[in-house]
Design goal:
The protein is α/β, with parallel strands linked by helices and 271 residues long. The chain has nine helices and twelve strands. It has one domain: TIM Barrel (Alpha-Beta Barrel). β6, α4 and β7 form a beta-alpha-beta unit. α1 packs parallel to α2 and α8 runs parallel beside α9. The chain starts with 16 loop residues before the first strand and ends with a helix. The chain binds phosphoenolpyruvate and manganese (II) ion.
């Protein structure tokens, strides 16, 4: 590593981040939920279904980083309230993205984990402010970023005083004509060899294609991750964002039944 990564490279062994009854970094964590919170009914139906089949944390975007300014931008504060209702009913903690320094306080009131999205991985003002809060942060890899740049982004948060950083590999840009992305699983064992921060994989954004989320979830587990984050929707074809990559409730049930077993098996391989 070229740069000084004093904190990231020197995290003590068995770095564990408790969120409710899950110890992220020790227990396998399965985060699931819609790309975007669209309505209370939609979010509640998805939350109940994913909880029933083993998800530990509910995801859902309310501030959405969309390529086009004309696309659905998220429900903002109303979306946070909907997530809270779903969390209270199911007992699932919430993760949601914060895009702007001005929204940190609001998102922090509702979320159990704050997500820094791929597009903001090098938003250093945001990273510095996130470093000041005392909540777990999921730091996604920038889609054009190297592992070194990603770890430096984590270093910013740790340096601010927030030691609860979870990394999330979500794929990088590539030349493929259809999906323009590669789920870079090389990064998992590399990150594991460099730092004890927990790392999870998002095979939904990493593939952009619901039909290959299952095999890439298996591949991610085999590479040694601490968990997965998967987009799940009750009606993917009508979703307001990321229609092509969200699993329906049935597909998620099948996936969830298989991954915990595979995780236990993989642990024995890596011992
Ligand atoms: C998301 O997880 O909601 C998201 C927008 O992902 P990414 O930042 O990885 O594109
Ligand atoms: Mn999405």
């Amino acid at each position: 590593m070229k740069n000084k990564l004093n904190l990231v490279l020197n995290i003590e062994n068995d770095f564990v981040i408790p969120v409710n009854d899950i110890d992220i970094g020790k227990d396998f964590v399965l985060i699931a939920g819609p790309c975007s919170v669209e309505s209370e009914n939609q979010t509640l139906e998805i939350a109940r279904a994913v909880k029933e089949v083993g998800a530990n944390i509910l995801r859902g975007g309310v501030f959405k980083p969309r390529t086009s300014p004309y696309d659905f931008q998220g429900l903002g504060k109303l979306g946070l309230k909907i997530l809270k209702t779903a969390s209270e009913e199911t007992g699932l903690p919430i993760i949601t993205e914060v895009m702007d320094v001005r929204d940190i306080e609001l998102v922090n009131e509702y979320a159990d984990i704050l997500q820094i999205g791929s597009r903001n991985m090098q938003n250093y003002s945001l990273l510095k402010e996130i470093g000041k809060i005392d909540k777990p942060v999921l730091l996604k890899r920038g889609m054009n970023s190297t592992v070194n740049e990603w770890l430096n982004a984590a270093e910013y948060i740790l340096l601010g005083g927030n030691k609860k950083v979870i990394l999330c590999e979500r794929g990088i840009r590539t030349f493929d004509w259809e999906y323009n992305r590669t789920l870079d699983l090389n990064s998992i064992p590399i990150i594991k060899s460099l730092t004890n921060l927990p790392i999870i994989v998002d095979p939904s954004h990493g593939t952009g294609n619901q039909s290959i989320v299952k095999p890439m979830s298996f591949a991610a587990i085999a590479s040694g991750v601490d968990g997965l984050m998967i987009e799940v929707h009750n009606n993917p074809k009508q979703a307001l964002s990321d229609r092509k990559q969200q699993l329906n409730l049935g597909q998620f049930k099948i996936l969830s039944a298989k991954i915990k077993e595979l995780y236990e098996f993989t642990k024995t391989l890596n011992q």
